[in-house]
Automatic annotation (TrEMBL), chain B:
Superkingdom, natural source: Bacteria
Name of the protein this chain belongs to: ABC transporter permease
SUPFAM superfamilies found in the cross-reference section: MetI-like
Topological type in the membrane: Multi-pass membrane protein
Stored Gene3D superfamilies: MetI-like (1.10.3720.10)
InterPro entries from the UniProt entry: MetI-like, MetI-like_sf
Domain ABC transmembrane type-1 as annotated: residue spans: 193-363
Main subcellular location of this protein, as a coarse class: membrane
GO annotations of cellular component type: plasma membrane
Organism lineage: Bacteria, Pseudomonadati, Pseudomonadota, Alphaproteobacteria, Hyphomicrobiales
Location in the cell: Cell membrane
Transmembrane segments: 6-26, 33-53, 59-79, 91-112, 118-139, 151-172, 178-200, 212-235, 241-262, 304-326, 338-359
Amino acid sequence: MQALSDVDLTIKKGEFVSFIGPSGCGKTTFLRVIADLEKPTSGTISINGMTPEQARQARAYGYVFQAAALYPWRTIERNIALPLEIMGISGVDQKARIKRTMELVNLSGFEKKFPWQLSGGMQQRASIARALAFDADLLLMDEPFGALDEIVRDHLNEQLLELWKRTNKTICFVTHSIPEAVYLSTRIVVMSPRPGRVTDVIESTLPHERPLDIRESPEFLAIAARVRDGLRAGHSYD
Amino acid sequence: MSGLKLSWQAGLALLFCVAAAIMLPLAGAAAPYSGGTTALIFVLVAGAALASALPVPNLISAAILFVGAHGAAWLLIAGITGNEGTARTSFFLLIIAGWLLAWRCVTVLSVLRPVDRLANTLLRLLIPVIFGAWILILWEAITRGAGIPFVLLPPPSAIGVRLANSLPILWADVNQTIFKSVVAGYILGCGAGFATAILADRVPFLRRGLLPIGNMVSALPIIGVAPILVMWFGFDWPSKAAVVVVMTFFPMLVNTVAGLAASGHMERDLMRTYASSYWQTLFKLRLPAAAPFIFNALKINSTLAMIGAIVAEFFGTPVVGMGFRISTEVGRMNIDMVWAEIAVAALAGSVFYGAIALVERAVTFWHPSVRGG
């Protein structure tokens, strides 16, 4: 079965690109192809001049999944240390990186807790810290806040923007929430299903500084309306 | 009246008391119970049953029930000594009344919630101890009261005496069977099962070839394999260890293979995004995730190993070992010695199992079944 066809996209360094579309439009598949978790049947993908396989071997990206996927037998700090251990980073350096990334996601003080002692939002923040710990320039996020409630989600969106500004990473973010996509992104890729394809690419005109109430501004609503139009146009079943 | 704590156990015990009084005497023929003793037994049972309804703290009513139930049982069993088989219905009614009081006692104890940790631990030990003691008391009272033939079922007191008098022999048997056959076979069998599981996981064609063969080995009847292994490895403990290896290999293999598949897709994808090697993924993700399965196999194997080593000794052994002792003492009608060996085997098996369960709790503390939620 074909999940995706005719996708042509260039993502610049430091961008925050959201992929939005109904389920089955191949947005997660696209992210997994970039991450070399799935092989494309045709076409080429280049990440800083490397193939996805090379990029994975070079640990060029951090991946945040739909669930936190923390290991329950490791404390939060040992979970964040997991990629560092695998990549053979020294103990002293590990400690410094754990401290820094835990501060970055506001989890300081929870180093010795086990994942199951934390709330869902905190677990997802820990998993973001884990993806940041080894300083990959690219962050791939697959509906990371999909399972969380609206209030926690708003809060984490704000923190994610803050984090993106401070770390200057390139972020590819998969979501099916229109406000989330518009609020976070510098560019929004609207996708449609059967077969998965890109129907619209929207450059955000919102300023870099984005308080939560920007979501009531006419500019924001205009972009949201365009995303909604793109989604509707792509729906083949109505 | 308010505050009375009525219970069906105490009520039924009183009823049994009345019935026992109607059907006196306690035992036939030689009349081993004096009038005073008989009266004391009735006072203990009926008194405890009545006192348990009084509105006093739970701890005090539990103490009264404890004294009443065990005092009566002690007097009844002590009285029947030398007059085995002469007990009448009245004797058994009173024993059952005592048992009901002990039941009530445990019920009262199990609702207690002491704040002190030491008291809590003691209470958690006391409840199963009373429960176990009453199995022995009923066993003792029935075998002696009804005069059950010794070769059919000896009373626990006779088994206890035999056990205490045969400690050196029992120790030599334990040393031969458990510290040599079981331990060596268990370590080799579990180790080989584990190593084979890893090998089958690493090499796909082995997975298809080895698992069916492992399955077949586990289906071999132990009674058929044991004499052959005795011929191969000699009469001493190595042949018994070989039987244990055959018995413990497969549960470990199957459980480890299942455990290695237990880690989630997302967790494995995560390792892939780190470009983690096969061995890194194995040690950091798949083996920890498999730990609950591996411990299951270790626990199953602890009992299988005991059975295997004891049964294997039936097919030729030097003149020491638990299986050897059981098979020869049965032939000599020394049933109490057989029971003493069974008791030792049960004790050793429980300690073995308990030790593994403790390690399991420490290692898989993170698993929902251990942390409770």
